[in-house]
Structure formats: C-alpha cells, structure tokens
Amino acid sequence: MDTLPYLAKTSFPLLWLLIAVVGALVNTRHNPSPAARLETWQRWWAGAALGGGSAWLVIAFLAVPDEMATTIGFARTPFEFEIAFANLALAVLAFRAASPSATTRERVLVGLGAGMFLWGAAAGHVYQWFAAGNHAPGNTGGILIYDVLAPAVLILLAHRAERLTPRLDSSSLVA
Asked: pLDDT tens, position by position, for the chain (175 residues)?
C-alpha cells in the first residue's frame, strides 16, 4: 500500500470539517456577541461541514461510482446510487440549516436526521473494519471522524444556542 495516496484518500472527508472551522473562526474573530458567534458557527458547520461534505458525496457517488466503491472497499453495486441520493437529502437539509432563517430546532432536527444516517454508516464502517478486515481509505480513518462529528457538532451547537436564547413562558405573556 502506498502511504501518501492512502493518507490523502482517508483524510479527504476531514477537509469539510476544516473548511467549517476556518470559516467560522474567520467570521467570528471580531464579533463580541456570544449569540452571534454561535449563530455563525452553526451556519458554517451546517453549510460547509455537513452540506459541503454531503454535496461532494452526491457528485462523487454519481460521477465515479466505481472509484467510490473501491475507496470504500466494496465491489460496485446499486448501493452507490442509493448513497448518492441519501447524501442529496442530507445536503438539502444542511443547506436549509445554514440559512439565516433556520431555527435552532430545525438545526437540531437536521443534526439528528444526519446522525441517524451517518452514525449508522460509521457503525457499518467499524463492523467492516473488524469483521472483514476492511482497511480501505473510505472505510476507516477520516470518514469515521466525519460521520460521527458532522451531525454531533451541529446538534451540540444548536443545543447551546437554544440554551442562550431567552424563552417566553406562559406566565410572561400578557393576555
């Protein structure tokens, strides 16, 4: 196995997380408001990490399905087409969560929906790793980190934003 191409392939999914972190850091560096900083982080994480990563997978699974199957360590099957459209759903939801009008509740739901798919995928990757000895670059490494962190961080950021937002309770409403 040639180490450099393997490292590049297995690390590629982390690029989307890195773009989100750098984008959020650059856009929050002069903002004193914790709520505004958190909003920026949520939007970057939803749009770049989850949306960008999912959109990339749509393109990759539709354009080069044989290469994607090989990268994951499988033979080509209809699975690649199905995964492309599952990722299209994630991308659409993530881009909605990145919009300025998205609520924290929407972002939590998008994170949970993405988590159901991506955490299941991560469990499948780990199973293939240990049960079948599948060490293909698209089965281990960066994709596992991406599958776990992309939805988890979005959920945590939205949950934190929800805790910062003052809530109106029924006793504070005037009839």
From this structure: 578 788 988 999 999 999 999 999 999 999 989 999 999 999 999 999 999 999 999 999 999 999 999 999 999 999 899 999 999 999 999 999 999 999 999 999 999 999 999 999 999 999 999 999 999 999 999 999 999 999 999 999 999 998 887 654 444 445 4
The two tokens of residue 76 are: 């080509």
Contact residues for 56 (Cβ-Cβ < 8 A; gap 6+): 16
Residue among 92, 87, 94 at smallest CA distance from 153: 94
pTM comes to 0.90
- Alpha carbon distances (Å) from 58 to 63, 147, 150, 152: 8, 15, 16, 21
Closest by Cα among 85, 16, 21 to 52? 16
Strands (E), 46-101: none
